[in-house]
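Field notebook, page 177. I keep forgetting to write these up properly, so this time I am using the form the group agreed on. The chain and the ligand, guanosine-5'-monophosphate, are recorded exactly as supplied. Prediction of the bound pose follows.
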Amino acid sequence: MQRKLPDTLISEEKIAKRVNEIAAEISADYADKGEIVLLGVLKGSFIFLADISRRLTIPRAIEFIAVSNYEHGSIPSGAVRLVMDVRESIADRHVIIVEDIVDTGQTIHYLHEMLKSRSPASIKTCALLHKAQKTKVDVDIDYVGFTISDEWVVGYGLDYAEHDRTLPYIGVINPTD
Ligand code: 5GP
């Protein structure tokens, strides 16, 4: 039987419009700074990063990093572990960490602190989605796509147990579906 598709929270058109706006903002902010490094956090940011990077009007390099959350049984402990590091040095370069979603804020906080210690010229953060009510850690997100409430979202790179990553829109998983 065909599974019901997740309900739409943010349409493909709205995402495209917002991605264009963020890319224009980043392009303006870094217009005189030379090359920037867009550092995508795998896996969830891969589509967002692909779209943002193609809309920038400034020189950019692409890098990836991967983290996972330590778990006690199936419950996330909040601690973050690096599972794949950046390949190139980020020293003296302008870095923007690109995340799919900021929830508690632990991941972006961990990455920001770790990468800051590697002497980049500057470091900023960009997230497509922000569950603002749930964020516990004090983090500044410099570029935010959309603020959302506390629901499990999928699509446009985000998954539910590896399903729905390639949906073109942001959908909500309804536990009763
Ligand atoms: P944080 O460290 O901010 O609590 O969690 C960030 C990570 O949790 C994200 O990079 C993402 O992997 C995952 N996450 C949090 N909320 C959601 C959600 O609603 N959907 C999906 N697919 N992942 C989420």
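OBSERVATIONS:
- Residues 44, 99-107, 152-154, 158-159 surround guanosine-5'-monophosphate (CB under 6 Å).
- The longest strand covers residues 60-72.
FOLLOW-UP: compare against the apo run.
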